[in-house]
Amino acid sequence: MVSDKQKRAPRIYCIPATEAPIVAVFRRGPSNWSHVGCWDLVQRQYKPGAWLRGRIFPRRCDLSPDGRLLCYFAHKPSATWEQGETYVALSKLPWLTALYAFGTCGTWTRGYYFTQDGRCDNLEDAELPIPYGLCAIPVVQFANERRRGWEEASDSPPRQAKDFWDGRRNARLQKRQPGGKHVLCLESVGWAGGEFGIDQSVDGLRVLYSLESDGDLELLEDLQWADWNGEGQMLVATRSGKLQVRNLDANRPEVVFEEDLSVLDPNPIPAPSWAQRW
After folding, report:
1. Fewer CB within a 10 Å sphere, N or C end of the chain?
2. CA angle at residue 134 from 200 to 43, to 5 degrees?
3. What is the pTM of this model?
């Protein structure tokens, strides 16, 4: 039987910046609320930000390399602005005030990611005052992770030629610890896209993490998200709703940072002035 506390545990998904010690944190729960926060790895601090009475699709979002800008895809049924109820927007982390936005044809939209090489899809010929381009997120499992150094494992089942949405396989990825001996392993569980509302799935994708060390494989069943920081410490979001930094290379593994997001309640407040302008 699932306890009341487990029923209240939020779904959490994180996107680390590629060139800054900053992590965008997406929290869903209660089910009709979404929350965004900023995890500062240097200050070892979690900074809560915006609440949205609607849904953000974290796997179809991205954080700019410098950790400042968020490109997010949202569905807000009560929206009355010209972009409609499903839209892509740019904001300053950890807020959702749209500095630029455009409507989409619905929730099948893939979302967009930041580019540094000048590539940019046609966004109504917008000229944005940012040093990045924006391209549509490719249709592949774990697209965000792949852009952050995760590689498909040798034993990952191949994608079927007619599997347009890449949802009919249990893809397996892995990422080696920076400067260390451990390897984080990640795999989808079940049919991606068919698990909405089940077992803390994020955007319909259920996942399982494990840790490979000296040929031994340890299941990390208490995690709903994980990655490495630049120093080789493991960043995690637990299924109980906590953010942690775990040091695996001490004499005994230890938690060196913890923030409990399960205790948060919806508290929408206006974005500060710096987040309302470019």
Report:
1. N
2. 60
3. 0.93
